[in-house]
Target: Nucleotidyltransferase domain-containing protein
Amino acid sequence: MTTIPSYDDIRAIAARLVRQRYPTAVAAIIGGSFATGRQTPSSDIDLLLLFEHVDCAWRDTLVAEGRTVELFAHDVATFTYFCKEIDAAGGTVPLAMMVLEGENIAAPGPQHAQLLALAQAFAAAGPPVLDVDNLQRRRYAITTALEDLVDSQHPGEALAVACQLYPALADLHLRAAGEWSGEGKHLFRRLQAFDAAIADQLDGALRLVASDLPAGQHAFEQVAAAVLAPVGGPLLEGFTLPAPAHWRA
Model:
């Protein structure tokens, strides 16, 4: 049986890595699974490094003392840009959450305090509001995918469509309510924290598609109806999507 390393062991590995390879870092924050107590035997170390200045932000994957490290390097300006222009634009705040949930293992200083204040501000602001066009696109995509799922007689095809519907419904439910979203396991965690009932319905529907297709199809119809109702319901007739005029050879 593989042993799950303790946080103290991981902290020591990260501290030695920072001391040996990145001594000029003004903050070093352990985030991810180890910061939230959700680590598994193979969990990597998510490490956010803050410097006084970097020519460009970078991400690196390396191995330290046998443990994979996912490293994110920034200064305050690049951190701000990534949170505002890259993450928030897509409805997520992974960098900000690393700062809020994690521990700074470097000496405390004003730069870390500034970073913490920025992360708190980004998280509190919430994601950009979904405009009418965005909502219509999402409603249409979900409606057509649901039709494909309900009409499908092929278990493999149905499961593929269900795997498409799950994130579309979960993300729409969060974003329409002004909540931050996520990807992969973080999407499930966000949805579970916001609306456990819908999270359980989606999880159950996806499992049913794999084990009992007719029941899974019915379950997806129900959860899709619940998610779409507050934003206008299903959308097919009347949906239009003009291409930009410059899209021509």
About this structure: The chain has two domains: 7-125, 132-231. The chain is about 55% helix and 10% strand.
